[in-house]
Amino acid sequence: MLPYVYQGAVEHYHWLTPQQMIDSLALGETTPGPLIMVNTFVGFVAGWGQAWFGADSPFLAGSVAAIVVTYFTYLPSFLFILAGGPLVETTHGNLKFTAPLTGVTAAVVGVIVNLAAFFAYHVFWPQGGTGSSIYFPPC
């Protein structure tokens, strides 16, 4: 999901710079909790930059945007778990349901490798491969 967030927030709407998105990933990796909390940071920075409530209150705009993004990031997952949890529990031991889940597990590993490659490319070549130098953030 994070490459889609990058595409929307950075490339399409220009709410964040590519470096801010990489910083959000670093923040998400170093703090406890799910990585998808990067969306909250992206929402906050987008709200701050857009200043929806006027130039005098960017913190309010960022806070409201972060709350809205967090709410709509977690609400569907929460509803799916409540609705589908009991159904999943009834499928334990049934081979026709557990075999596809093994394939899903392999697909998740592929998604994680794809995410690592995507962000490694954007960290080491922030100009999109056109620059000759590799970017190393200051210590």
Structural class: mainly alpha
Which spans have pLDDT < 50 for at least 5 consecutive residues? none
Query: Mean of residue pLDDT?
Result: 82
- What overall geometry do the principal axes of the alpha carbons give? flat
How many H/I helices? 5
Order of helices and strands: HHHHH
User: Beta-sheet strand percentage?
Assistant: under 5%
- C-alpha termini separation: 29 Å
Strands, total number? 0
Radius of gyration: 19 Å
The amount of helix comes to over 70%
Q: Describe the sheet with the most strands.
A: none
How would you characterize this protein structure?
There is one protein chain. By secondary structure, the protein is mainly α. It is built from 5 helices and no strands. Helix 3 packs antiparallel against helix 4 (58-90). The longest helix is centred in the middle third of the chain and has 33 residues, at 58-90. It is flat and about 60 Å long.
Jot down its keywords.
139 residues; 5 helices; 0% strand; flat
Give the topology, please.
Blueprint: H1 2-12, H2 18-30, H3 38-50, H4 58-90, H5 95-124
Helix pairs in contact: 3-4
